[in-house]
Amino acid sequence: NLINPIEQAQTPRVVTPFPAPKLMDLPQFQGEHKESLYWGTYRPNVYLGIRARTPRSLIAGLMWISIKDGRYVMRHVCQDSDELSKYGWEQHDGRNFGHQVIVDQDMNLATSFLKSKGEDSGYGGDWAVRIDVQNHKSKGKEELLTSAHLFFYLADEDGNALNIGRDTLEIHENSLLASGSRMDIGSWQLHLKSQDDLEVHYAGFKTPHIHNLSDLVQENLGLQVRKFGRLQLPDTSDDSPNILVFQISARTPFRTDVAFISGTGLESPRLEERVGSHTGTSLTSQLKEKQREFDAKFGKSFNLVDKLDSESIVAGKAAIGNLLGGIGYFFGQSKIAISGNMNPGNHDDSILYWPAELYTAVPSRPFFPRGFLWDEGFHQLLVWRWDIHISLDIIGHWLDLMNIDGWIPREQILGAEALSKVPSDYVVQIPTNGNPPALLLALNDLVHGLKKNKFTAAESDAISSFLERAFVRLEAWFQWFNTTQSGKEVGSYYWHGRDHTTTRELNPKTLTSGLDDYPRASHPSEDERHVDLRCWMLLAADCMHSIAELFEKENKSGKEYGNTVKLLSDFEILNQMHYDDAYGTYLDFGNHTEKVRLVWKETMVGHNYATRELVREVLESPKLRLVPHIGPVSLFPFIARIIPAESRILEKQLDLISNRSILWTKFGLRSLAKTSSLYMKYNTEHDAPYWRGPIWMNMNYMILSSLHHYSRVDGPYREKARTIYEDLRGNLIRNVVQNYHKNGFFREQYDQRNGKGKGARVFNGWTSLVLLIMAEAYSS
Ligand code: 6A9
Fold first, then answer.
1. Residue 77: beta bridge partners?
2. Predicted pLDDT at 172
3. Is the ipTM, as predicted for this complex, more than 0.90?
4. 318 CA to middle of ligand 1, Å?
5. Rg of the chain taking only CA atoms, in angstroms
6. Contact 405, 17 (CB under 8 A)
7. Where are the beta strands (DSSP E) in 607-713?
8. Catalytic, out of 199, 293, 468, 516
9. pLDDT-derived band of residue 177, with 50, 70 and 90 as boundaries?
10. 422 lines ligand 1 (CB under 6 A)
């Protein structure tokens, strides 16, 4: 996607791509690799959605009818308000296979996905979907529930016309549902097979607005009900439809297989054989085989045997299954703020980033089905242990989103489907704002793995050539942080972009840090020093140094990184800048007062109206000082392992972590000390505490990882670290696993008072790190 020079002259700098060869153009991402990842369940925002990794794909998906309060409702897009008691990929290998279980009131649906490449297959191979439908009880609802209606659709984002199979009503004689042809894969056919007594109806539509598919089907069906009193698609179509929806109705229980076959020779006698091998008993045995392979690979990758009970292992499989099954492919353009007020929700002007692809895992299918920069770093800690090539592909996509300044937008809202989930105030990305370079956590693991010869030859080659090409981008990324986020003093940093004008927030948020409302200095200023960012910079410098070493780039830049590492890991300087002896921990520094509160004020609007609003009252002038809030931020030097093993400060940190009145709970560590003045405080009238108490898995994982480290290096506090490590590990696993089995889901955070999951449901982003905790897999 090179921009021609004339266009480039007019392109604002902020939307100019970083001028270096793209990672995704590396040979390792072409050819067989690319083809092997072509089709997949890459639409995590719907309960079951398939597409190819191409900007305008043929997409497939599933809807079904459920009954709520005596009314028919359509299920399609993952929505919390659907109140499904369970859904998610209990197994998924990120490539060719997945098995999802869905429980919607009395209905149980299981959806399996299988992909394979045969001799005759078109580009990307063939795939099959199996849907099993059962009723598990039907108290008094017998009549409504003994039959079920599924809607399987195909839609061509490119607008290509799809052909309807010869006669869907005679599906048992002729399994063909639809056919067509595309540039990418050639001719294709969709077949449906079932042993059960099914009825199939269809509707065809021509429209470019594919993200509204649920409405389209619902309206069409509603019309049929009103006109003819039947819940049945009309068996008619617009001319040259690019969307075909097939209604599959049957008495429960039933099973149906859908096979997508592509390539030449679709008219040949082999076709029937190919359909056969993607459906029925042949599909059953292939799915069983894939299931076994998944289990074996799970065992090999995470090695949990003897460590844990079977309940934990089931949850561990769901952790990786859902993370991999949640990987999506997106295409579109971010909106970027260019001028004026840089605060969220207050953007007069925005421009579009270049059209870009993103292959990424997502934090949560129903709530946040899109890419988030720092979340992805944590996701990759799991993914690289499962499949290095998928992981490099994901990290490569992210690094290719870097602009000429070395900036990567934090939240990626690409394409109409993604956009439809985000309130307009939150769409625009601010190019002066950062987000932790957590992708380096994963890259750092890979670099160390390379040095220790942990990978196969093919993996090592892939990682090396990746790092070699990534290096200039990583340098630019480092420079972006080092120049735009630096503080007044050498070796100090702060998250730029906090709002110093707001009068509403009890403590102005720091969305950039990823820890949103975790309290910082009460009055944002240029004098701030954020201890977490300082430690991220150490990690970044250290990672750059290791990569430079690897390629013997012992030149200027390699040395500079070495010097930065020295500076940022200097214990004395760290202590001078951030240590508070009274609290025995590390703290932010800034213009701060503890004496703030929210109060209701009446303000006049014009002459007649008075409105009441909650505003901040400052009861004492702030002054430059250490900011006495204790939480994960205070523990970053511990996380970064800067503290020497024999230091008394290490003992103090361990005491802080294990202190029940401060951070410790039976369910994990709080995100803010119980003793903090802002513990569990609302930030505005509507902004409930988020990182002000509840337990978050990513921070707990990082702290646990360091406890593990200090329990293995010699020193006077080794035993102490070991005991705390084991207790914390046990608490985290027990609570997440119990919640999973009781409520069916992983959650965004856990209540520090009773362990209950809260925030977004189906949060299989970094909460999945519980699997690495089970496996005791940490960075070296
Ligand atoms: C706002 C409102 C439906 C918040 O997991 C993604 C991020 C993390 O990166 C961040 O550290 N989450 C954490 O503090 C979720 C953020 C969602 C922002 C979307 C739009 C949506 O209303």
1. 46
2. 75
3. yes
4. 22
5. 27
6. no
7. 609-618, 623-626, 664-665, 668-669
8. 516
9. very high
10. yes
